[in-house]
Design a protein that fits this description.
The protein has 375 residues and is mostly beta strands. The protein is 1% helix and 44% strand. It has one helix at residues 251-254; strands at residues 12-20, 25-29, 33-34, 40-48, 51-52, 55-63, 71-79, 85-90, 95-97, 110-119, 127-132, 137-141, 146-152, 158-167, 174-182, 187-192, 195-196, 201-204, 216-218, 221-223, 226-228, 232-241, 281-283, 299-301, 305-308, 320-323, 350-358, 361-362, 366-374. The chain is elongated.
């Protein structure tokens, strides 16, 4: 407790010190600050969002009876948080196998693929992210640490072969890989982390990719009773549509997958937002056992693990909201309060913060609330 000196004109106070938020909590309250004779208090909520979680609410309270009862006088609310998850692969035991072709699959000359990939290890080795039996199609990283994509025709001749100019090695950050091709016009666009990559190797032939294969894999390549070329790291927002070409040189098309600030954007519950149609494969959380696309679920091998994934544009909290509640001599229910509420009247002699969160937060999610008082 700070005592009556809290009412010093222009005094800046900390209502809630910077606090890391992880697990869900219900109505946690801070130690009350004491200060009589305050006419107004201007507070700001600094919420730095990492990932995870589904909602958070922070309430400024005052008391008129020395802390016996408390009244909410203003609120900061952050509802509907969409913290994207990812699936983590250990590089040794974990991968997904379809065991058959993707439902409704068909050969074509076009395709679009997108994914947020974190690389934890395996540098200088091949690692598959999405693979069709017999190399009908592959979306991977090669032993030179380059993005590598290829497809073959019905005669197993390579007609799509792309290797990136940039290289990507183990590190804590997610990389976004986005590509679209039309072999009828021998055109391919590749953007990595929002930047165009024309490729160190790029071979395109006007032919049809043999997408219809007896098996598909995520996070590795099935071989005998096991798998090879397994990914060590995490996968999120994996999207594959073998029926659509998108001109990615058009910025608005890229923004359907990655925001201008370099974050994932929501693709819709079934991945249909980018084109209006559900793709054959869409793994928003990287979990191929729950394919939100039309091609059917995969079977997990080993123990692929769900973890907090990359931030999404929709899940970013507004960092600061401020308001000046000038009073609180009336009873107000929590549900009646919204951000930037201003109430007329007089303030009590004690102040505290009450907050609740839902979901599991991660990625250095923190909260701090401070204020300036006027006597």
């Amino acid at each position: 407790m700070l005592g009556s000196d809290l009412a010093v004109e222009g005094r800046r106070i900390v209502l809630l010190p910077e606090t890391v938020i992880t697990a869900a909590v219900t109505e946690v309250t801070t130690t009350p600050l004491v200060g009589a004779g305050i006419r107004s208090i201007a507070a700001q909520c600094l919420f730095s969002y990492g990932s995870g979680g589904t909602g958070a609410g922070f309430y400024l309270q005052t008391s008129f009876d020395k802390g016996t009862t408390w009244t909410d006088i203003a609120a900061f609310r952050f509802p509907g948080v969409e913290g994207r998850l990812a699936t983590e692969f250990d590089g040794t035991n974990d991968w997904y196998e379809r065991g058959s072709d993707l439902t409704g699959n068909a050969d074509s000359k076009v395709g679009t693929v997108s994914g947020w990939i974190r690389i934890d290890g395996g540098d200088d080795t091949v690692r598959r992210w999405l693979f069709a039996d017999g190399a009908g199609f592959s979306f991977a990283i090669n032993d030179a640490n380059e993005l590598a994509m290829w497809g073959v025709n019905a005669a197993s001749a390579t007609i799509l072969n792309f290797q990136s100019t940039g290289t990507y090695t183990a590190g804590p950050s997610y990389h976004h890989f986005l590509a679209s091709w039309d072999l009828a016009t021998t055109t391919i666009y590749v953007y990595i982390d929002g930047v165009a990559d024309t490729g160190s190797t790029s071979t395109l032939a006007d032919d049809t990719i043999d997408y219809t294969r007896p098996d598909w894999d995520v996070g590795g390549q099935q071989s005998g009773a096991g798998a090879i070329y397994k990914h060590e790291g995490a996968i999120s927002e994996l999207y594959f549509d073998p029926t659509t070409y998108m001109d990615l040189s058009v910025e608005s098309n890229r923004r359907k997958f990655i925001s201008a600030s370099g974050l994932p954007v929501p693709l819709g519950a079934d991945g249909s937002l980018p084109t209006g149609n559900q793709p054959i494969l869409y793994l928003p959380d990287g979990d191929a056992s729950d394919n939100k696309g039309s091609g059917g679920d995969f079977t997990a091998v080993g123990s692929p693990t769900s973890i907090p994934g990359p931030n999404t544009e929709a899940s970013r909290f507004q960092v600061m909201k401020s308001f000046i509640p000038v009073a609180a001599n009336q009873s107000v229910q929590d549900g009646a309060l919204t951000a930037n509420t201003i109430l007329d009247g007089v303030l009590g002699d004690r102040f505290r913060i009450k907050y609740s969160t839902t979901g599991v937060f991660a990625g250095d999610t923190t909260i701090k609330i401070d204020a300036t008082v006027k006597a």
